[in-house]
Fold this protein.
Amino acid sequence: MVTFNVAGFLTDFTNGRTQVVVDSSAATVGEALEGLWQQHLGLRDRVLTEQGALRPHVNIFLNDENVRRKEMLETSLQENCEITILPSVSGGSSTIHDLRVTIY
């Protein structure tokens, strides 16, 4: 069994669910994701590219470790693991602007 934690705007593609349990005997993260896609097909294109690679602005964690620091989608799974799919947050400004408010 694999428990997926889905965060941010990606819950738009899981009917608002932040947690999805997939009864799977998957050996790798990629195989487990295939089970998730069967339940929530629209999520796949937001997580993977057309070539099946992890999108640059999405992180996948197996338990507490980012799969980018392991074997990506070929990372091996243990029984009853947790996979978190987390979109990166970007934008904003790296400088603080002087904000002045005038009260009349």
Observations:
- The chain has one domain: 2-87.
- Strands lie at 2-6, 19-22, 58-62, 65-66, 81-87.
